[in-house]
């Protein structure tokens, strides 16, 4: 038996073992949660039928479109503001937290700690915590998106800076350049395209998250969605959902275009 045949046989056995583990875990999870896969499949046609019969945009519903668009614009701009301001904070934390540009170990550990805490607590949890302090208003939604974005972008910026080439850093260091000159001339220009890409990604993510945050904080398009849902006005719910989907698609297309230009 050749080496390639042994490798192929080993890979096949690993694949079989992995599939068996997945099957066992799926079965155990279904047993614990009392989930019946067959019953779930049976309900799909009924669910689709209900959606087509209730979630339809009518002429009467279109009269609510100006109000919905106003709330959607509020949510979109809040998401963009939270992302851009968080990006500035994350840039400093990323520079301090990176091994390449760290000032000292204390600031590096502190920046990584902030990123870890902010990133590992879901935005929904931040919304509920901040809701107790600030109440139901736009500030609560803004802060929830801001804190979550700081954690994600700080981590992404640290990794981007760590992957930057050391040659330009060493060249400027050899010429006696200051710390800020090294960061501004050697590090940031290399990482800027990746950083912009991460910021655009978070703008898309925050627009989606802002809907859920709005339901909890009583603001923006999330509040409008929740209000119509509780009123059982499913036609208006369909219109709100359609507007959110179209907005996310437009932002996604714009982000992809910008990424192609800068990368």
How would you explain this protein's 3D organization?
- This protein is mostly helical.
- It is built from eleven helices and no strands.
- It has helices at residues 3-33, 37-54, 59-62, 65-97, 105-120, 123-134, 138-162, 167-174, 179-217, 220-230, 234-262.
- Helix 4 runs antiparallel to helix 9 (179-217), helix 7 packs antiparallel against helix 9 and helix 8 (167-174) packs across helix 9.
- The chain is globular and about 70 Å long.
What global shape is seen? globular
Q: Percentage of helical residues?
A: over 70%
| Computed structural class | mainly alpha
C-alpha Rg (nearest Å): 24 Å
Strand content: under 5%
List the SSEs and their pairings.
Layout: H1 3-33, H2 37-54, H3 59-62, H4 65-97, H5 105-120, H6 123-134, H7 138-162, H8 167-174, H9 179-217, H10 220-230, H11 234-262
Helix pairs in contact: 4-5, 4-7, 4-9, 4-10, 4-11, 5-7, 6-7, 6-9, 7-9, 8-9, 9-10, 9-11, 10-11
């Amino acid at each position: 038996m050749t080496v390639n045949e042994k490798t192929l046989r080993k890979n096949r056995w690993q694949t079989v073992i992995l599939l068996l583990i997945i099957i066992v875990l799926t079965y155990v999870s279904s047993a614990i949660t009392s989930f019946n896969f067959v019953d779930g499949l049976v309900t799909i046609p009924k669910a689709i039928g209900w959606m087509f019969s209730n979630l339809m945009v009518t002429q009467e519903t279109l009269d609510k479109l100006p109000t919905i668009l106003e709330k959607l614009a509020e949510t979109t701009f809040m998401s963009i503001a939270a992302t851009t301001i968080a990006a500035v904070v994350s840039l400093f934390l990323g520079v301090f937290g990176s091994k390449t540009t760290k000032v000292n170990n204390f600031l590096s550990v502190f920046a990584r700690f902030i990123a870890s805490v902010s990133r590992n607590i879901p935005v929904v949890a931040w919304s509920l915590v901040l809701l107790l302090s600030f109440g139901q208003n736009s500030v609560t939604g803004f802060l929830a998106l801001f804190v979550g974005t700081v954690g994600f972008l700080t981590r992404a910026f640290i990794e981007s800076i760590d992957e930057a080439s050391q040659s330009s850093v060493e060249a400027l260091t050899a010429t006696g350049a200051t710390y800020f000159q090294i960061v501004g001339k050697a590090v940031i220009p290399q990482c800027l395209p990746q950083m912009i890409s991460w910021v655009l990604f978070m703008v898309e993510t925050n627009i989606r998250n802002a809907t859920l945050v709005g339901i909890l904080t009583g603001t923006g398009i999330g509040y409008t969605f929740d209000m119509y849902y509780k009123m059982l006005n499913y036609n208006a719910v369909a219109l709100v959902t359609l507007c959110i989907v179209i907005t996310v698609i437009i932002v996604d297309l714009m982000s992809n275009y910008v990424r192609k230009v800068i990368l």
